[in-house]
Each structure stands twice: as structure tokens, then as C-alpha cells.
Amino acid sequence: MLNQNMISEARRLTRAGQLIEATALLQRMLRGESPDPSHALASPVCLEPPTIDVKANVVEEKESRRTARVSPAPLQRKSIAQFDRLKDFSGLNLRGPMTRAPPTATDIAPEGTRFIAGTFRSTNGSRNYKLFVPSRSQEKPLPLVVMLHGCTQSPDDFAAGTRMNFLAEERNCFVVYPEQPSGANQAKCWNWFRTGDQQREGGEPSLIAGITRQVMRDYPIDQKRVYVAGLSAGGAAAAIMAATYADLYAAVGIHSGLACGAASDLPSAFVAMRQGGASKIADGGPPVPTIVFHGDRDATVHPNNGDRIVEQSAKAAGFKAKVSEGRVPHGHAYTRTNLADAGGRAVSEHWNVHGAGHAWSGGSPAGSYTDPRGPDATREMLRFFLEHSLPG
Asked: Please, which contacts does 369-372 make with residues 24 or more away whose CB atoms are closer than 8 Å?
């Protein structure tokens, strides 16, 4: 159990604006060290983003004999003994500056396409973004994918690591990457754990939705085929966008993230990251179709959070789950759980990647937080997205 006195002290420090001290205190608590808050800043964490330089391969998959109802097969529960290595989601700059070389233009987008900068402004603030425009963008109204980067990342870095622009060129889609500046969060994390940033038409959700609508207005976008996805803090923000703007996004992809409402402040964010956080958002209309990727050795965001997201996206009874297993040749094995309603409509997919940590599955080493040994999350998310459109 977490020390309640230390949690109370962390809340006090947070209210006083001493976020670095609050974070360090919580880290010491999670390591089981002295509760003396005067030692809170003893050892800051500085880790480079993990990359695994292995070429991704075609996925081999077979259907499992196991079947399930209502909820996906349980994840393997891993002890998070090294939670003190926290390098993401805290909302603070706990890592030193990235020393990796920035991605090149050829890492970010294919030749013959455009990757252009834009800005959205409103009474709630402003955000810059980068927009991928495919080479065949004038053919007809096209789908749009909104990509929310993780902590310490940038649109260029996230585009290079996920290679979403290359897949979007194949499938003829626009992709927009909102940028979280360090002025909004020292580590450039989306502030998913603040209640003010979990609401429709307020805070960061209003800015992300505003960017989405601006691109929909300025370019030939199919308004029934707009999607949102993210990694880590961006994955948690994507879950919030699906919960608060179900009329805008036809499907959501969440990689290594948390359910909407899993936390309401910094201390509860640490608890959710360590143990898994259930949504506290009231039930609304029909669930937004959701695809989840999570490594079962993620020591930053507990794999339980993948289960919580799927549960949030499919609360009604009677759903049937089809479970299959596969392996990337010379890479990670995985368990894939497809959940469908009584009419056969896909409600969610949950990819539990065995042996993977806190990194984009199947991504490129040109970007940070990637693991090329996993199944291709980018390809699978885009495939899942294009199977769904808004009704009416």
C-alpha cells in the first residue's frame, strides 16, 4: 500500500506549485525509501528513450482455441519493481535532453508528399501542429488521423518513429500531429491527469479538437472518417478525446496509455501508472471503437491499464471475444483479443505484446520509444480505423 502521509504531502506540494518536489517524493515512496520529504530530490532520473534496432517482419498469427465473453483474456501481471525508472507521464522534465540525432526528412515522410506546419488559436489557447498531406490528396474527401505524441517527443520524432505518414500515403489519408510545448508541460507531456484537461470544450481537449476541425475545414476530409491515436501520455490524451468527442472521432488507438479519468491529479497519476487506473467518467452513448497496444513488460505504465481501456470502451454485457495468438518472426509474441457486439460490429481490439516495454510496437529506430520487434501497431491501427466510420 502507498504511504498516505506521503501522498498527502505530495498533494500539498502540488497545490503549492512544487511539482518537481512532489514527483520526487512520490518516486521515493514507490521505491520504499524514507518518507522524509527533505530527501525528495536526491536522485533525479535521466534515461534515454529505448530503441531496438531490429527490422520488423510480417506477422504470423493463428487463432487460439480459447474463447471469452464480456472481457478480453487477462494480461500477464508483472511486478513493477523498477518503477523508480519513471521517465514519462509525470508531467515533469525528469529526463535530460535527448541526445539522439533528429530524424531526417526521408525518415518522416515519403517523397512527393508534404509535411507542413500550422497553428490553431482559440480563447482556450493555441497549439502548433504538423500536417501530412498525401500525394493524391485532391482525389476525393479523405480520412484524417490525429496523432498525439508522448512525453519529450515532437511531431517529427513521433512521425519518424511510427512511420504513420508512410502508411497514410499507401492508404491515402491525411495525418495531423498536434504539438505539446514545454511551456504547457516541462516534459511536453499532454496533461491527461488534470480534470481541467479531461473535459469537452475546455483545456487541452478543446485545442486538439480545434486542430482537428481546422484541418477538416481547410482540406478535403471525410467528416465521418476522422480518428485519433497516441502513445503514452498521448495515448491517455487520445482516450480522453474519444470519451469527450465521440461525435468527432470514429475510432481511437491507444498505445501504452491509460483510460480517460484514470487520474485526477499528479499523485493519483502515479498510482494509476503503477497499479492500473479505472475510469471515473460517467457512461455516455455507444462506445467509440478502440484498438489498444500495450507491452506486458511495460515498467512505466502498468499493463493493467490496457485492460481498463478496453473495459471502458465496452461496458455493455453480451460482447463476444475472439482470442488469437501470433509472433513476429524473430520478434515478440502477442495475444490479440477482438471484441464484437451482437451484430458483429467490432468494438475493440487489444494487442498484448509479450516481452515488450514502454515503446511503439513495430516502430522505426529513427524515432524515440520504439520497438521494431513487435507487431506493426501503425499498420494495424490504420487498418482498424478504416473499418469504422461515424453513423448517420
From this structure: 369/49, 369/50, 369/51, 369/150, 369/153, 369/161, 369/231, 369/232, 370/50, 370/51, 370/52, 370/161, 370/162, 371/50, 371/51, 371/52, 371/295, 371/332, 372/52, 372/53, 372/54, 372/55, 372/56, 372/331
